[in-house]
Amino acid sequence: MHQQLTESPAHASDTARVRGEQKARRVASYAKRTFDLVLGIFSLPLLSIVMGVIAVAVKLTSKGPILYWSDRVGRDNRIFRMPKFRTMNLGTPEVATHLLSDPETHLTIIGSFLRRTSLDELPQIYSVLMGDLSFVGPRPALHNQHDLVALRTERGVHELTPGLTGWAQVNGRDDLPIRLKVEYDCEYLRKKKFLLDLKILCLTFLRVIRRDGVAH
Questions:
Q1: Are 128 and 177 in contact (CB under 8 A)?
Q2: Amino acid 99: pLDDT
């Protein structure tokens, strides 16, 4: 005669809690993606006009393509292609700007202006609509920023969808060393809420207007 096994109350409670947390994460992920799509679609008409003007300016002031596509590390360390308006001359090494010996010599005529105003990042609305980026999340690392990728993976940050802006960006942007950036990324991972995303978007707007934290 077989003895029937029953689930203990404690185990059942733990199982219910885990399922509840998983459901809450799925709902939050769906809500965040919906917000990204709605905001992206509604802002696209206005952004298209601005991007059209910038595209003409880039083409008239330097040789080369209007857009620069870089390999970036996305959610779960998946590589995706991310566009920006080209701000560097052709032949510039594909590394983070702060690693260049003299970044100013590589900038196009309007490159510095586009970077300081963050207008070079407007084409990334494409990546948001494609689902590779969110409006808010850790900024995506370059494919060859192995130290940043490794540290984010170690701390679980790689599970987040990267963003146009993030908690680290509004707390220092280019001024922050890698380890401190990841600490801010971890803080966002722990606290991520819709209201925090709205706060980050508002702070980003203020920092862009003041041009805070941009080295080049």
A1: no
A2: 58
